[in-house]
Amino acid sequence: MKREKALAIVEKQLKKKRYEHTVRVMETAIKLAEHYSGNIQKAEQAAIFHDYAKYRSPEEMRRWVIEEGLPHDLLEYGDELLHGPVGSVMIEREVGIKDPEVQSAIYYHTTGKQQMSLLEKIIFIADYVEPGRIFPGVEEVRVMAFQDIDNACWMAARNTIRFLMEHEQPVYPDTFHLYNEKLMNKK
Length: 187
Ligand code: DGI
Ligand code: FE
Ligand code: FE
Ligand code: FE
Hints:
10 helices, binds fe (iii) ion, Hypothetical protein af1432, single chain, mainly alpha, 187 residues
């Protein structure tokens, strides 16, 4: 699918701010794919569709989790976690995008996981460091993204865990698995 067509599809699904974020994630993901010799077309497509489900109601997203047989524990960690996994199946059903690599990058873009593919890392980190993001610690990760993407993913997981704990929010286990991976020398 051509970039313009894909962007037009997601623009209808998103609020203006979120659409602008999506375009910046796309630009960042393409730069990372170029830098790390990844698949630029897949990085572009995954970035464009990564927040496709973001504005569906919690009720609708919960229904998709159940009807599509996604892990039910997703329902216990807060609705913010659902739009990645749900989006990855929605784009197949509603847009006809059937590409396991692209869908997996969308699925894990919020939590990360251990043993991520290059494409999964690119989308996870592009979402975190796109130039519109301004939270504490982001600049350090932005620099690291183009030096050592594994370390950048680890830092993003660490910062996210810190943030969630500060706000006494539950942390999804995949985020801990990504954080632990480096420290436990699993890779
Ligand atoms: O969709 P975006 O805003 O572009 O970014 P995102 O998909 O990374 O979502 C960020 C939100 O997800 C933010 O509110 C924190 C939350 N989040 C990230 N990791 C976890 C999490 N929430 C829970 N409960 N557990 C996590 O591990
Ligand atoms: Fe997201
Ligand atoms: Fe993120
Ligand atoms: Fe996003």
